[in-house]
UniProtKB/TrEMBL annotation:
GO MF term set: ATP binding; metal ion binding; methionine-tRNA ligase activity; tRNA binding
Name of this chain's protein: Methionine--tRNA ligase
Family: Belongs to the class-I aminoacyl-tRNA synthetase family. MetG type 2A subfamily.
Function text: Is required not only for elongation of protein synthesis but also for the initiation of all mRNA translation through initiator tRNA(fMet) aminoacylation.
One Pfam entry name: tRNA-synt_1g
Compartments (UniProt record): Cytoplasm
Gene3D superfamilies linked to this entry: 2.170.220.10, HUPs (3.40.50.620), Isoleucyl-tRNA Synthetase, Domain 1 (1.10.730.10), Nucleic acid-binding proteins (2.40.50.140)
Gene that this polypeptide is encoded by: metS
Short motif 'KMSKS' region, span: 294-298
Keyword Chaperone annotated: no
Species whose genome carries this gene: Campylobacter cuniculorum DSM 23162 = LMG 24588
Amino acid sequence: MRYITTPIYYVNDVPHLGHAYTTIIADTLARFYRLQGHETLLLTGTDEHGQKIEQAAKARNFTPKEYADKISSEFKKLWDEFEISYDIYARTTDSRHIEFVKDLFLKMWKKGDIYKDKYEGYYCISCESFFTKIQLKDENACPDCGKKTELLEEESYFFKLSKYQDAILKWYEEADPILPKNKKTELVNFVQSGLKDLSITRTSFDWGIKLPDEIKDNKHIIYVWLDALFIYVSSLDFLNQGKNAKFWPAHLLLVGKDILRFHAVYFPAFLMSANLALPRFIGAHGWWTKEGEKMSKSKGNVIKPKDIADAYGLDAFRYFLLREVPFGNDGDFSETMLINRINSELNNEFGNLLSRIVGMSLKYSNGIILNEGILENFKTEFDVVQKHLEDSIIFLENLQPNRYLEELFKALAVANLSITKYEPWNLIKKGEVKKANALIGLCANILAKVSLLLSPTLPKSTAKVAESLNFKIDTKNYQALILEKQLLNFKVNAQEALFTKIEKPLLAQEAPLQQEQKIKIDDFAKIEIKVAMVKACENIQGSKKLLKFQLELDNGELRQVLSGIAEYYKADELIGKQVCVITNLKKAKIFGYESDGMILTAQSGDDCVLIGPKELVLNGSLIS
C-alpha cells in the first residue's frame, strides 16, 4: 500500500516551475507503484487559510474564500491539463478537514499538550512563522525569506513542542525517514539546539479555523501549520474511518526544502500528540532557477510550466525536470539543455530505436519479431540490460529519479550499440538470418522492458511504443518482463516518430521589465504613437502567446507588428479594431518574424487590455 502526497500548495500565487516539479515527481512515483501492483493513493491540493491570503484577497476586492477558490482552481486546472493521476484534490477549506482539525485540537488540548499563554515575537507574514530577536537578520528581516517581520504581542494557545524533542530525534535515528540523507543532519542540529513550545493560534485576523466550541474561545483561529499539515490525514476521511483511512501512515510526503522543518519537526510532534503513526519518508527537493538566476517578473525570466509543455510536449517536459537535477539539489532551467535532452536522448536514443526496430522487422520478417535465439546469441547484452533495469528501480524507490532515468537510457544504449556493432543488414547478406532476427528481437525486448519502466515518466510516448510493438504496459507484463526476465514476441505496427529534432528555441522570450526612472518631456516627445486599424491578425504556429498583426496607418501604409496577447484575445475578433502603436521603434525579430512597432496594452490584474481610441478616428492619427 502506497500513499504519496505533494505539498498542499499555498494559494498566494499561480503554479510555477517548482510546483510542477514536485507534482510530476509525485505522479511518476504513483504511476510506478500502480505498475508494480501496489494499491496506491496520490493526494495534492491547496492550503488556503492565513493572514497572507486574507490580505491578498482584500487587496483585490475578493473575500478570502473567493480568492482561494480562484487560485485553487488554477492549480487543479493545470494538474488536469498535465494529466496528473491524483486520487484526491484536497483543500483546507473542505468541511471534512475543518471538522477533523477541530476534533484533533480538542483531543490534544484535553491531553494537556496545548495550553494558553501570551506570545511576544517577530512574525513573518510571508512564511507564516514566528522568530525570536536573535534569529532575525539585520533590520528585523526574516531569516528564511529576508522580508521584514512584525513584532507581535498577543494571547495565544501553545503546543508543547519541547515535550517531543527526544522522541523526534529517536525517530530520525531509528526510522531514517528523511530523503535525501544529507537533509537529516540539519534537522538533527535544529532539534538538538532545543525546541521551544509553538504558538498555534492567532487573534489578529479571522481567516482560518475557529477553535472547537467546547473550548469557548471564539476570538482565536488555529494557526496555519497545525491546520494545514493535517490535510494529509483529514482527506482520507480519517475522522469517520472511511475507505481511504487505511492508507495512513503515508509512504512519502514530498515537500520543498523551505518547508521541510514544518513537515519533519512540527508535524511528527503533532502526530505523536494525536497518537497517529508517522509517515515512512519525507522527501525535500531544491528550488528551480532560470539560467542561474532566480525567476522574477522584474527580470522578465519567469517561465510558466504550461508554456514549456505546450511548446515542447508534456512528456519531454516531465523527462527534463526529472532527469536534469539530482533530487534535493537546486535545479536550473535552460531551454538549451532541454533541447539537448530532447534531441540527444529522447529523439536519438529512444525514438530512433523504435524507428529502427520497426523498419528492420518490416523489411526482414514482415513485422514479426520472435524471441528465438536471443539468449543463445546475446546473453551478455541481455544480462547487462537486466542489471540496468534492476538498478533503475532501486534508484526510483530511493527517490533518485535522475539516476533511475540514467540507468534506463543506459539500457537503451545497449540496444543501439548492438545494432551498430552487429549490423543486422550485413548478417542478412551473410545468410545469418536467424542471428539478425534474434538481434532485432533483443532490441525489441529491451525497448519493451525500458518502456515499461519509463511509462511512469513518459506515459504518452511509452503508450505509442506499446501500440507499435503490440504489448501492454501493465502489472502483468511488469511481473513477466522485469521481475521474471521473460522475453516477448511482437507483431509490429508502423508508428509516427515519438519525438522530432528541435532546430531552434520554441519559447517566446519576454523582455525584462525596466527599472522605474524619470524621463524628461523632450525624451517623451521622441516617442511616436499613432492609431492604426487591424487589417489582418493570426496566431503564430508554435507560440501560445504571440499574434501577428497587419496594421493600417495613414495613406494605406501597412505595418507588421507582433504582440504577446494571444492568451487574452482571439485573432479573428481583432480585425477591424483600432489600436495604439509605437511606430518609431527599431525593427525587431521575434520568433523568426519581423516586428515593426509595439502595440500598447495595459495589465489589469490577470488580464491584458488593448489600448485604443474610444471613438473611430483617422488611421495614422498621432497621439500627443
